[in-house]
Amino acid sequence: MEVGAALVAATANGRRHAAHLATALPGARLADKRTDPPVVTVDDAGRFAVALVGGHHGGNDLARRVA
Questions:
Q1: Which of 28, 56, 62, 65 is the most exposed place for a label (fewest CB within 10 A)?
Q2: Rounded CA separation 18/25 (Å)
Q3: Nearest residue to 36 via CA among 15, 58, 67
């Protein structure tokens, strides 16, 4: 599954998780603002991933992969 999403982090720990996810999900880059990508959030400890938006567009599957 090709992932069309951006990785955004608000904390130093979040940036470490984002860097790891960038290597694990190489397609994780936002291609175009007109697309409707899923939005997945991860807690700062990196233990939980939740699809906030786009569950019907692969967000739930992406959350499972991220978790």
A1: 56
A2: 10
A3: 58
